[in-house]
């Protein structure tokens, strides 16, 4: 039987690439989409691409910032696929702004989508993995969570929090055969970064040692490594082409 990967926020960008890369490597893919609209405009196509690799792939619509919706989604995935072997907490948003100008709502929205979601999903999928005494949890953090980033007080707080959740999960669930690690990408080409101006992109690029932005595939390679490793846990792998050293 194929292993099962559940990826949050997988209708587009890095999440969609993760789904296809894991499908290529023989995983059945449970693809979480935020809404009916993102299912229609991305999730459906991601699932089709996965199925081309001969695996099962289905979409599950849920706002992962909502505790009960995560519980229902995890239940539905187990009913449809029989297990969750790998959970990738990928869903995320940005609402950038300088500290003294940031609205409270922008802070709360980012914490809910980027941090609470990781608790919600780990809480429910972790319980499933504990019963099976095996599982891999991979959380997508960011270099902004490791080093901070001006203009992203909400985002960097959420992504630093993800690293805290990662270490605590690794400590709590390790004896149950479950690993938990984080990936901290630098600047990755995706719809999230497409909106940046050319001027900002040029400035950022000049700081990347490898002289190019990362691709979703670069992140997917690190995720595949973590999904296949039994003795790496509680770690944060930085995938940033040498941006932050
Ligand atoms: P995208 O904006 O392309 O994708 C993010 C995905 O998350 C979208 O599919 C979005 O759905 C989904 N999502 C957002 N909120 C929710 C929610 N509450 N419930 C379910 N799904 C949700 O961004 P990327 O692919 O670039 O980012 C993926 C992850 O990588 C994020 O966690 C991001 O913070 C992180 N990251 C990205 C970097 C980059 O340079 N691109 C750098 C470092 C980290 P919808 O389309 O409906 O909004």
Quick recap of the structure?
Helix content is 50%, strand content 15%. It is built from nine helices and seven strands.
Give an account of the 3D structure.
The protein is of the alpha/beta class and 245 residues long. The chain has nine helices and seven strands; from the N terminus they run E-H-E-H-E-H-E-H-E-H-H-E-H-H-H-E. The chain has helices at residues 13-24, 36-51, 67-81, 104-132, 143-147, 153-173, 191-194, 198-205, 216-228, and strands at 4-7, 28-33, 57-61, 86-89, 135-140, 178-185, 236-239. Helix 1 packs across helix 9 and helix 3 (67-81) packs parallel to helix 4. It starts with a strand and ends in a 6-residue tail after the last strand.
Write out the strand line-up for the largest beta sheet, numbering strands in chain order: 3-2-1-4-5-6-7
Sequence of secondary-structure elements: EHEHEHEHEHHEHHHE
Cα-atom Rg, whole angstroms? 17 Å
Regions with little confidence, pLDDT below 50 for 5+ residues: none
């Amino acid at each position: 039987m194929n292993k099962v990967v559940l990826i949050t926020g997988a209708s587009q960008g890095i999440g969609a690439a993760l789904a296809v890369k894991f499908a290529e490597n023989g995983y059945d893919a449970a693809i979480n989409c935020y809404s009916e609209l993102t299912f229609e405009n991305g999730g459906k196509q991601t699932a089709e691409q996965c199925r081309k690799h001969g695996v099962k792939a289905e979409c599950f619509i849920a706002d992962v910032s909502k505790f009960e919706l995560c519980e229902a989604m995890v239940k539905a995935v187990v009913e449809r696929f029989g297990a969750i072997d790998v959970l990738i907490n990928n869903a995320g948003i940005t609402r950038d702004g300088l500290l003294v100008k940031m609205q409270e709502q922008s802070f709360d929205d980012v914490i809910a989508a980027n941090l609470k979601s990781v608790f919600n999903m780990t809480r429910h999928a972790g319980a499933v993995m504990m019963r099976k005494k095996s599982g891999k949890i991979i959380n997508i953090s960011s270099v902004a969570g490791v080093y901070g980033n001006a203009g992203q007080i909400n985002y960097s707080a959420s992504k630093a929090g993800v690293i805290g959740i990662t270490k605590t999960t690794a400590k709590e669930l390790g004896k149950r055969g479950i690993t938990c690690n984080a990936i901290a990408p630098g600047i990755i080409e995706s719809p999230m970064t497409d909106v940046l101006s050319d001027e900002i992109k040029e400035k950022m690029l000049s700081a990347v040692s490898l002289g190019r932005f990362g691709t979703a595939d670069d992140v997917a390679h690190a995720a595949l490594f973590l999904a296949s490793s039994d003795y790496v846990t509680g770690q944060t792998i930085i995938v940033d082409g040498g941006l932050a050293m």
